[in-house]
Design goal:
This protein has 236 residues and is of the alpha/beta class. It has a single domain, classed as 2-enoyl-CoA Hydratase, Chain A, domain 1 (Alpha-Beta Complex). 44% of the residues lie in helices and 17% in strands. It has eleven helices and ten strands. The strands form two sheets. It has a six-stranded mixed β-sheet, with helices on both faces. Strands 4-6-8-9 form a four-stranded mixed β-sheet. Helix 1 runs parallel beside helix 3. The protein starts with a strand and ends in an 11-residue tail after the last helix.
Length: 236
């Protein structure tokens, strides 16, 4: 399950299990209902522990995957709950988009689908330059984007990049992602988290409530889209 470590003013949220590169139960850091609940609980914990002091948040993982997105096995066995499940995924995006401290995604490996959108829900993103892809594979899965997801991608990506990523399923390596405006920096494996931490803590002194309000106002139309209930959907 996800866990948090602290590096001075920076909280680092890891999306996998502590002490291993790949979780035995969830090796690709997919959005199982339990995983979603754990991430939201840890974000609450980080906010509480910051207690008004200087703080910033980095979201990353270890090993081969940042997050490969939706828990397909859960979805296929709970199709009657698909809409509610996607609404819970939207809740994670909303929480990050309005988080009352600077947030940076450190994309250590593959970020696909909902996992790619998780990275885009952070204020900034740094990607490993030599490993992993950013990809929106929904076109190949014959799966539509929800209203909120489509709005998130339009809002957080350059328009032409959003068009290409959403309609072709292109896989962007670190250099391509930087050139396309998906991420703001790339780094080697050893420098990835330190680079993300440095970027995050540069604004750690910002007042949390003020920053949260600014983000809420900035993303207001997007946040509204992410509260639209998801209708019944199918894919594949």
């Amino acid at each position: 399950m996800p866990y948090v470590q602290r590096h001075d003013a920076a909280f680092v949220l890891y999306l996998g299990d502590e002490g291993v590169d790949l979780s035995e139960a969830n090796p690709e850091n997919r959005f199982s209902p339990e995983w979603v609940d754990a991430v939201l609980a840890l974000l609450d914990q980080v906010e509480q522990e910051a207690a008004g002091g200087p703080a910033a948040l980095v979201v990353t993982a270890t090993g081969k995957f940042f997050s490969n997105g939706l828990d397909v096995m859960y979805v296929m066995s709970h199709l009657d709950r698909f809409g509610a499940y996607l609404d819970s995924v939207h809740a994670v995006y909303r929480r990050l988009l309005t988080f009352p401290m600077t947030t940076v995604a450190a994309i250590n490996g593959h970020a696909f689908g909902a996992g790619a959108m998780l990275a885009l829900s952070c204020d900034f993103a740094v990607m490993r330059e030599d490993r992993g892809f950013f990809c929106l594979p929904e076109i190949g899965l014959k799966m539509n984007f929800t209203v909120g997801m489509a709005h998130l991608l339009r809002a957080r990506l350059p328009y032409q990049t959003a068009l290409e990523a959403m309609t072709t399923g292109r896989r962007y390596g670190g250099g391509d992602a930087l050139a396309a405006g998906v991420v703001q920096a790339v780094a080697g494996a050893d420098d990835l988290v330190p680079t993300a931490v440095a970027r995050a803590v540069a604004n750690a002194a910002a007042d949390g409530p003020t920053l949260g309000k600014i983000k809420h106002d900035l993303h207001a139309p997007l946040l509204k889209s992410l509260t639209v209930p998801t209708p019944a959907m199918t894919f594949g």
